[in-house]
């Protein structure tokens, strides 16, 4: 069975039905550079959901097929009625959230609480599938990890205002660049924090991949931190180069 072709046909079919995500795109594969096995491959679906191979693969082609298989299973599972956000689904999800956080069910009607904000987000996305809803959730997970949500709360923005504002945006290069700049600032305040966070992100990504889980949150963390580190390194190289040029100029002047 050519699982790579089946996955492609599945999403092409959804595109023809106009049942794809707002951020339409193709199925994209990415292989990690490696001199030898085990090889790692990621596949990103339209909408941004990311999956990887969870088996030890002896070739890049095998890793790609294994990643496609995980993505196909999740794509098909997402089509089931139980994966679409309905009133019943929302009630059950809120119930689970309350029990897992030892919260109060009354909080579901108060958007200023975590449970209430989650309830509000679900209600705002009624009719969508869980993979579609997850695209929005990833943004808020990253904003929470990045410290941006805390900063917004300190400016007295309500949770509803924050949700309404960021619900209009997709996770793109511009948003990643803004988050990378935030981490560059954190690095200036606490030298070494970028490398520490990147090691954590890489470990989480590896563990989630081997468990067959959805990977986008961990992969986005890695991309943002890597972008921040590359920017710092680039600035250091540029600064060093400018110092060298200045030294040569002064030497020539003398």
UniProtKB/TrEMBL annotation:
Superkingdom of the source species: Eukaryota
One Gene Ontology cellular component annotation held by this UniProt entry: cytoplasm
Family: Belongs to the LIX1 family.
Gene it is expressed from: Lix1
Protein known as: LIX1 protein
Record InterPro entries: Autophagy-related_EPG5 (IPR051436), LIX1 (IPR029270)
A single GO BP: autophagosome maturation
Any single Pfam family the record assigns to this protein: LIX1
